[in-house]
């Protein structure tokens, strides 16, 4: 199945010579949730803006649903919903009229039942006749989401959709995202809450300095690049790692009552059996042992720092 969004060698150079995107190539499959991670200034918003037709690429080619975003702009843009970072709404317009207007912009016929469904999903139905300026910041962000969904897009971009919002909206947002994916909608999100990406994404892309560092299935990424740690709790604290154990590169826990051993799960041997034997030979008495897997955030930080 061809990718629903395909970017090939996309470059964006702003006036003054700043190169925000450096030959980005990315294929996004229909019905997946792709989390695009990167530090501030990495190029996430620029890439989304180019795909959505809000910023012109310097060079490269992008298609959405097989439609070139330049040569067949209207058809491509009709497939896209966008929830931007910034809240930009008409302050004196009623909520329901603002959402209806967005649907009409894409040439969709009036569908009050669909608009009501969206507003109820986002807990906005009781605010439908309120003017936007009367809403809280969290409610305004809900209106942005409703407007993005009003024309029933097949590709939804969420650019930091839950930044600075309440826990309730965050939960509502991800419930809606899961429902959209079940209906075959493709979702691309950027977020500073990496635990959210870890919980909801199918694939993860990491961008830094205008370049895609990696795109991978989330589970596969965590298996291939994740590290495991063995925490060994001791009966008595230690001041330093015995010289006989130096080859294991152990870390001492903050209280001196634990040793941390990091190992590669892909290796033929983890070294754990030998370590436990050497600990006993040094007279260290174990109280407990436990393991933990590195998180997506650990992997992300490692990738970005490695590329710096």
TrEMBL record:
One Pfam family linked to the record: ABC_tran
Entry annotated with the keyword ATP-binding: yes
Domain ABC transporter: 5-234
Highest taxon of the lineage: Bacteria
PROSITE patterns reported in the protein's UniProt record: ABC_TRANSPORTER_1 (PS00211), ABC_TRANSPORTER_2 (PS50893)
GO molecular function: ATP binding; ATP hydrolysis activity
Keywords: ATP-binding, Nucleotide-binding, Transport
SMART domains documented for this protein: AAA (SM00382)
Annotated PANTHER family: ABC TRANSPORTER ATP-BINDING PROTEIN
Protein name: ABC-type multidrug transport system, ATPase component
Organism: Litoreibacter arenae DSM 19593
